[in-house]
Write a structure and sequence with these properties.
The structure is a homodimer.
Chain A (H helix, E strand, L loop, with lengths): L6 E6 L22 H13 L4 E4 L10 H4 L10 H9 L6 E7 L5 H14 L4 E6 L4 H4 L10 H19 L7 E4 L4 E3 L9 E2 L4 E2 L14 E4 L4 H10 L2 E4 L4 H17 L8 E10 L3 H12 L4 H12 L23 H13 L4 H10 L4 E4 L1 H13 L5 E5 L5 H16 L12 H5 L11
Parallel strand pairs in A: 1-2, 1-13, 2-3, 3-4, 4-9, 9-10, 10-11, 11-12, 11-13
Antiparallel strand pairs in A: 5-6, 7-8
Chain lengths: ~450, ~450
């Protein structure tokens, strides 16, 4: 597999996804509403040739106990479409992925905004399709009852059909603009969708020309059964959260297999696990930085995370002792609980450190030197655990600088990451074909 | 009134609002999806110290006979939020007004996007509240029946309360960001809206800090009875379409009076009639250019406009003769019909020219030299027909260049338009106060 290369996208919150990061030395605690910082971040990512900048999003102030809420920088930030449109003007090549919900928005609006972002950015837009699982969002959109999981996925599938149908409203050559004859466009090259399905009824046509990329790139994060199936049928990049390489390989095989059974090519769907990347001069120094970062998570909110993971109240445990070995039997998922116990043992964490890890960021992490991290990434690529990674930075700006200035050059030295962009659109960066218009040759 | 000055906003479609403009010599027929042109336009408007750039919008491909539709450049363009967010990064001072519908969107989304645009632009956002009157939009949003006019305005009023309530979710000083104590924000300075009204149910809080301007500037265009009342209660800038100075003065008095009766200050609501501005070296040359522009409207679509205005089929009239004097009695509005007859007489227009005027742009127009146009604008300002204008350019880029480089200097020479911006936010340009937070002192 000499030519196989990694794809890298940056999964961003302005202050980082780690809940203690805003307190880290030199962090920009005001970045949620300070565009200067975000412009600097995306320019650095583009200089490092990342495939895309991917903005995380929520449709509510997250439901947390007030003691945790008041310590969280993740509560408020820019709205993704407005932010990414602004950032499109300070960059030229990097992809721009926005999260948009199929449960709390209208397909006409979603189709239109992504098409517009794609035109504005010269073909760099991607849609991260989410079905919005948190019930507090429903109450911001007039509903007491949150839509059931399977209902959300059924609607999402139909929503996708409508949005992609609307993107194909005009043939690529519909706009003639012949000043002499006065014909602006050929109405025979315009398609009226007239969709009437179980959940949605949308006439069309979309009042915007076909996107530069044909369709913006489709991204999805689901790992549930309907989530995997939706991804296999529709997604071109899958953002997932395996815990380790074995889990990743199983997920990779499963989703690629489903895609093939749905009549798609394996290589037209990229598997990009989320990976927290923390760089040090030595593995020990990197681990020390991680403990320092975790220590900034307040114990009150941290211990709540540990209690939830264990399924038992952990607030009575000695914070500075090891995790008790005589945990009571509970209803907590065995997998989740076993993972927590193993984590404490492997890294010799105290109860406090374990709680702060869970309250900070506890997903897949590559913590080490540029060489060790590049080595891990290369292994995942070669063993088909990943086609690349959705990189999570532990803190900003330093964590992003370390990844772009230290890890990326090591990946390039190994020949598994591009030295420069070879195309101009996100589809070209990801090696994805431009979809044919389903209504016009 | 020595200090009274005009406010000028530019009412934009990328190729102009005039339906023949894309065929005009040197026009940018591709501007609907060519951001380079729009960036150039807005930079010129900012250099001329315009208050705001105002993007017209629709939520559908407009319902026209196919013969007219295929000749129209108004069918497709960028979506306003994505466009204005992009343009915020190539400008520093000019206001950015987006149209958003209260009938086909959710208040949480609308509040969030305008707040985000306001943060991204440093306090330059304005919301043009529309209730979306065209029935073809309803079919793009799952509805067969269009909401009745009075129902739309009732919902709009409640929608406004929800959006402004969401903007006030956080006190201006809520975000403490004390790295030492770990407190990111003060939960006592966050308000949960818990709105439950007749049409809307929205919990809140909004997941975004209070906008730079407190609230983005509220703009409205309604001239109907409920439209005027909604404007008087809520709008800070009214975009209206009087036919002449007498009509404008009556509308001005009416809306300002209603605002006072609603407990507001007259000067906190700016009346900005739409005005088509076409400049020539002489009045005759300007009128000639207008005839040339109108002549680019195809006769088939033009004659349909005339038939509608007269309430009778005009396709049998001699295109190159005068309007027949023996028009049959019809159900057409007498005002509209009398206006058309008067227009034909005043400007000695043939049937063809009259039809092309109606099919092109037939609203209030200032057609003349920089001096004559400035004189008219000054009269409207002094006689309280307007606090400024929503300028419509006949063709681009030339019409915009003429207005900014020839009319604006003449207005400045007369002391009725700013030489430079004195503030940084749109509220400051318009002389509007920053609203108090309704939930926090």
């Amino acid at each position: 597999m000499p030519d196989k290369k990694l794809h890298l996208t940056a999964f961003m919150r302005p202050v980082s996804l780690h809940t203690g990061a805003w307190r880290f030395p030199n962090s920009h605690a005001d970045a949620n509403f300070n565009l200067t910082h975000l412009k600097s971040f995306i320019r650095k990512l583009e200089a490092a040739k990342f495939d895309a900048f991917f903005m995380a999003d929520h449709l509510a102030v997250l439901n947390m106990p007030v003691e945790a809420l008041k310590r969280s920088h993740t509560v408020t930030s820019f709205e993704p479409f407005t932010l990414l449109s602004a950032l499109s003007q300070v960059t030229e090549k990097i992809g721009l992925a926005a999260t948009a919900s199929t449960t709390y928005d209208e397909p006409y609006h979603i189709a239109r905004r992504f098409a517009s972002l794609d035109h504005l950015s010269g073909g760099r837009a991607a849609w991260n399709i989410v079905t919005t699982g948190n019930p507090e969002s429903s109450r911001n959109f007039g509903r007491d009852e949150h839509l059931q999981h399977s209902e959300r996925y059924k609607r999402a599938r139909e929503f996708y059909d409508v949005v992609t149908g609307l993107w194909d409203s005009f043939a690529d050559d519909a706009f003639i603009r012949d000043k002499e004859s006065g014909i602006f466009f050929d109405p025979d090259r315009m398609h009226v969708l007239n969709h009437e399905g179980e959940d949605l009824k949308v006439r069309g046509p979309l009042n915007i020309a076909r996107p530069v990329q044909g369709w913006p790139v489709i991204v999805q994060a689901g790992q549930s059964e309907p989530g995997r199936q939706l991804a296999a049928e529709t997604a071109e990049a899958v953002f997932c959260s395996p815990r380790d390489l074995e889990g990743a390989k199983a997920l990779y095989r499963d989703i690629k297999g489903r895609a093939e059974r749905a009549g798609r090519k394996r290589e037209h769907l990229k598997i990009l696990p989320a990976a927290f990347v923390l760089v040090g001069d030595s593995v020990e120094e990197a681990r020390g930085k991680r403990l320092e970062l975790d220590s900034l998570v307040h114990y009150d909110s941290a211990i709540a995370s540990l209690s939830i993971a264990l399924g038992t109240d952990a607030s009575g445990f000695d914070p500075d002792g090891p995790l008790p070995t005589d945990l009571p039997e509970t209803n907590a998922s065995h997998t989740s609980r076993a993972g927590v116990v193993k984590l404490a043992e492997d890294e010799k964490l105290t109860v406090r450190q374990l709680a702060q890890r869970l309250g900070g960021y506890s997903g897949l992490a590559f913590v080490g030197t540029p060489e060790s991290i590049a080595e891990e990434m290369e292994t995942w690529l070669r063993e088909e655990g990943a086609d690349g990674f959705t990189v999570v930075f532990p803190f900003l700006p330093q964590g992003l600088d370390d990844a772009t200035q230290r890890v990326v050059p090591e990946l390039q030295r190994r020949g598994i990451f591009r030295e420069d962009y070879t195309g101009t659109t996100l589809r070209e960066h990801l090696g994805l074909p431009r979809p044919e218009n389903q209504f016009f040759a």
